[in-house]
Amino acid sequence: MIRRSSLLSAPARTAALLLVLALVATGCHRGTKGDSPDEGLPVEQIYEKSHRLMEGGNWSGAEANFRRLIAQYPYGPYTEQAMIETAYAQYKAGKHDDAVSSVDRFIRTYPTHRNIAYMYYLRGLANGNRNTVFLRRVWSLDASRRDLSTPRQAYADFNIVVDRYPNSRYAADARQRMLELRDVFAQHELDNAMYYLRREAWVSAAGRANFLLENYPQSAFQYDAVATLGEAYTHLGNKTLADDARRVLELNQPEHPWLQGKWPKYPWMVRKLNPFAGEKSASTGQRNAKLQRK
Questions:
Q1: Whose CA is closest to 205, among 194, 218, 220?
Q2: Per-residue exposure over 257-284, b if at least 16 CB sit within 10 Å of its own CB, e if not
Q3: How far apart are the C-alpha atoms of 30 and 255, rounded to whole Å?
Q4: d(CA 20, CA 8)
Q5: Which residues are CB-neighbours of 101 under 8 A, at least 6 positions away?
Q6: How far, CA to CA in Å, does 107 sit from each of 47, 69, 103, 112, 237?
Q7: What is the pLDDT of residues 37-48, one digit of tens each?
Q8: Which of 87, 119, 217, 223 lies at a CB distance of 3.0 to 4.6 Å from 253, suitable for a disulfide?
Q9: How far separated are the first and last CA of the chain, in Å rounded?
Q10: How would you class 195 by CB atoms within 10 Å of its CB: exposed for 0-12, middle for 13-18, buried for 19 or more?
Q11: What is the radius of gyration, based on Cα positions, of the chain?
């Protein structure tokens, strides 16, 4: 009797188990569908909703909606535009690493897209703003004090726009940004030269100044570099080269403080306590740059 009842109950137990699994699966399916209000909507409606979020400055919401569009409709013109705007929303939201990744994915997928120039330009913007940490914002540090690997990548991105797409609407601004980045690189070299000056490493200071002049001619910091040469050669006892530097300054920037013996001017003691502060004397070139661009 026991064996017979167990045989008869096995199908019933199997049926009950299948019923439970079906109910659970149905419940999960309904819950998933309820979590995505855009499920099943036409691609045009999802795109318009996402675009409205962008226009309202809701970058995170726009990014999430564009991602849903791409997931539901992986091909087509709306999807291509959604990928572009996803990268832009990430850039505006400060997610610069994510923006660069999205741009790279788009370039790999659509290397001949009609908006490819914009994508290289956007990647330049994102790369130029990567690695911006809280301390730099608090201390208002200049860009030359940061790691220059990503700004150099930004320069390369803008250079692609200028070289490959010179007639695009982004070429002029990309060219201007390249000039600004060159000043950042030049100031970085000047900061290094000032470091050596301050420590009386005259040969190293002159080497950095010469490197600046050779690699970043006509930068906003070129005459600070000349002054660095004059200071270094004076202490090295090379009167000929020191006088050459003086003549260059007298002809091109007669108001430079080095000619009056007021340069370099090192930071006062409290400023020295800030490990993130650069050499104060580099501000001469910054002032000149602002004057030249007005």
A1: 194
A2: ebeeeebbeeeeeeeeeeeeebbebbeb
A3: 76
A4: 20
A5: none
A6: 21, 19, 6, 8, 56
A7: 677 799 999 999
A8: 223
A9: 103
A10: middle
A11: 31
